[in-house]
Records
---
Amino acid sequence: WKPFKLCNCFKVIIGLMVKSLSFVKPLYPVTPSRPPSTVSYVERARQHRWQCSDVTFHCSEGALRQQWIQTIREQLTALTSRPKHLLVYINPHGGKQQGECIYEQKVAPLFACASISTDVIVTEHANHARDHLKTEAELKKYDGVVCVGGDGMFSEIVHGLVSRTQRENGVDQNSPEEKLVPCSLRIGIIPAGSTDCICYATVGINDPVTSALHVIVGDSQPMDVCSVHHNNTFLRYSSSLLGYGFYGDVLADSERKRWMGPARYNFSGFKTFLTHHHYEGAVSFLPATDILGTPRDKTRCRAGCFICQHDGQLYSGDSPEESKTAPDVSDREYEMGWGVVRGKFLAINAASMSCACPRSPKGLSPAAHLADGTTDLILVRKCSRFNFLRHLLRHTSKDDQFDMTFVEVHRVRRFRFTPRHWQNDSELDLRENGKQLFSQICRDHPACSCSPAYSSWNCDGEILPHAAIEVGVHCQLIKLFTRGIEEQPLFEDLANPPCAL
């Protein structure tokens, strides 16, 4: 038979990055003495979807056929970026409770086809994966960790891996100024949750097969992680969204309505919008002045992002900004490079990525980058319900969602929020007093103009116990089995595909 050049064939098989291939039909009939050989490869489809396809080789000479097979196997073995042994955690209760079914039917056959061995653990309770990674898992024998579930499951994996890495390297996580050690193992995400925001914002689609193929080919995408502290005590890590005010209230209310299922988010969101609470406080932040991008850029973070590469390399060394501590909010508006914003806020959001999802394809901050060492701090001041609704609707439109007088956005490396009347150890007492004085009234009369003293911080879908927090961004702390969202126009036209990439 007469295929295209053998070297191009190897590029297709080894790279596993082919859009479409055309092969000449075999010149010899298939017989038991000349069995065909099938090679699986990755094929790009539309809307960032990947799929697995097969190509069959026919050869009349048995010795030549074995030589080809052996050469292909040797070349694939030499690809060190591809994982060979994975630790898999499955959340059987996330989303529509289809995690085990998705893994067994769609993912496990692909891992087996790629000769990837797996150790599978089905989680039995909350934080099962986190605690196992922190203490029991023998991480040295794995090439990566895969989570089958939603954003909550991914957060468990991040906390387990990052905490384990810091403990083994003697890093004190309770110190906000401490520089954390990056994790060596990559994390794969098989979407099986309710929103799967992390997967959507890093791959461009929530498809288990596509995510599994990214793991198989050994892609790698660094990602920033924020650490959250209160009074020099570590609280949590955040990889996507920190939200105070509106998003914190939505989460706090929805947690009391878990019996409603996924519909509780819509109900709580509508109720919180009608309540229209605002919260008073001060936000101090360290702006990222030595970077290429801004929150209002038209350029989006995509595969091979130049901004992430440039800013990540720049920030990997010791930065003079990193040692600066936040001034007291009583100081003037700018001191030691820090800015201070005081006022009444409907929402305070920190987006470390676009936070895009199927319902909001642009996300909270469309120009946010995955690995530039910054987070986009979005401040929404008190305004009318109508204007706030306009702001929320901008998340689903093509308009600039920051082009409003009551909205401001800053790209920062660190920030701190101090609510009004906050006094260190008495914060919890004040929160309880606020609940007693205001919460029941506002719960019964959502249209009233009064507001409770404090909101809650929504940290990647978990409620933080304190309102006063300090947040720092750790550049490229983790790596994912993905390559970022690829520019779709490059692969839309499949009319005349090349033979190989």
---
Amino acid sequence: PIKLLMSWLLSPVCELSHIFVLCVPPDLREIVFVIQSQSNTFHVRQAERRREDLLKQARDISSDLSHSFGKNSSWIVFLEEETNVKLIALIKVLAKVDKNKEWFLGKPLFDEESTIIHHYAFAENPSIFKYPDFAASWALSIPLVVRLAKKVKEEPLKSDFTIDLKHEVALYIWDNGKGPHLTAVPELCTVPEDSPQASHCATTVSKKPPLCGEPVNKEDIFVAVKTCKKFHSERVPVIKKTWEKDALFLEYYSDHADPSIPTINLGVPNTERGHCGKTFAILQRFLSSAVPDTKWLLIVDDDTLISIPRLQVLLSCYDSSEPVSLGERYGYGLSQGGYSYITGGGGMVFSREAVVRLLKSGCKCYSNDAPDDMVLGMCLNALGLPVTHSPLFHQARPEDYARDFLAHQVPISFHKHWNIDPIAVFNKWLKNDFTASQDELKSGKTEL
């Protein structure tokens, strides 16, 4: 039964590549740690480091401790690559809970207002529903796993869009009140590991995003902005007042050539939705001699707010010679053999190799107004190429995410100008020059 449930929890939207049981000391064998990782080289390496750290701690635990706390250790514990675990402290936390009952443990997040990313769930009072912050880790007792596995077997999952897995997992477990709510565990934390507040914590987060070397040069990134005539005077000025100066190579693509911006007409008529035709014209132009030969392509909407310096730091962790597709990953029909895709509003990043393989495959739009991000996802899936998720890209506005979720991030992008002052949002969440970005990342702090 556990395997049945795990086949769902470890769906392609997670791309969990490491599941292992700590076998030392013997009484810890029933704690199964699942490291949520991805198939990209960088993420596999990060997950292996986390795995080795856990195994080392397990080997160092004395038999006395295992005898004292091992009796209550029938758990599946999920954690992310950047989740630091103090194994002894976690064992003590789990020992306080009756393993024979159904438990769903974690650090709770909640929505302060109903949001599109959660399909406006609990619209009358969204704060009543709690869901886990994956960065703090979360745990399921085996009795709960067994019941949910039985449910999955009897009622095959039918899903369309997977947008925010942590919220959707909590909804599934809650099961319209038939299952347990998330139980808050104060020892599951997202404060930095060297913070004074971390003294009581069994889990913490790394105090800074991974620094994989020098940030990627501006010369290596080409930025394509999708716009249209009706937004030339409304949205383009926001980009020019905020992040345009940080991009060395940037072009605006529109249905109308306006030399004052300037914009480029790719010969694709504007569509109210989808924009697949325009996006594929951008991919073709990226590989042509019309633009500088760069390693990375960033495609954004004209209402995307993004930090280019932070993107430069993040891209240092990826190999541009690999077919990398990076951004905020959504899923479509994953339980029925569907596919993952990079949602366009938060920004889609492609290595040159990824673009070469996409176009060489013959992948194309079935119509100009087809959803470009989903068509690209279908093509990448058909080619067997991974879609890499980063939680630092955001399809929605800051207020559409739980405050505690953003508090331990150094975000790269947000999307939409609706009901906000986009320049103020950029200045609050994303503004920093190249030097400040490195200092900020090294200190693990962001301006909130």
